[in-house]
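Appendix C reproduces, verbatim, an entry submitted by the partner laboratory led by Prof. M.T., so that reviewers can inspect both the input and the predicted structure.
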Amino acid sequence: MNRTLLLILGIFLTIASSVTGLVIIPNWQFQELKPVVKNEGQQFPAPYEGEAAQGRRVYIDQGCIYCHTQQVRMKGYGADIRRGWGTRRSVPRDYIYDRPHQLGTMRTGPDLANIGGRQPSSEWHALHLYNPQITSPGSVMPRFDYLFTEVTEPSQLTNLAVKVPVGSGRVTHIIPTERGQSLISYLTRLNQSYPFPEANQ
């Protein structure tokens, strides 16, 4: 009986110390973090609003986190900065508006913490999502062509239409669906290039 009580107590203490060390203490440490506001009134980071907020939900439900991270590691802990994935390491302040966080653990594809800075073109993102081979030959990323309407007739064109390179059959342009446009807005919004004092420590 004594061994059973010791076992239960040990399990309880293990779980309690894990929750305390991994959840409660970090939340307490970072709850006072606020965005940095520049003289011009710009706020970094800024909360996700409108299309970008909707696009974040599309990012989550499409499972992008299974192949991409959103965390640039500091020098000495990987080649993220040398690869051009970021200009500085990611810090907790970068994620004050992220619920749930999309840090990720797998890097089948490149880190996306700064993809909006590296690839600010909405057209690039549209083509990449529609068919990654167009922008990144040899990519193992699957196609997300169901987030687009394929255009074969000039009468179908809208102001959101993106020209598809020759060689895509009868398809001349693609038009993002509402979900596709939201995802593109979110991706172009991902940019951690603004300076934070703690990022240089």
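The chain has one domain: 50-200. Additional entries are available on request from the coordinating office.
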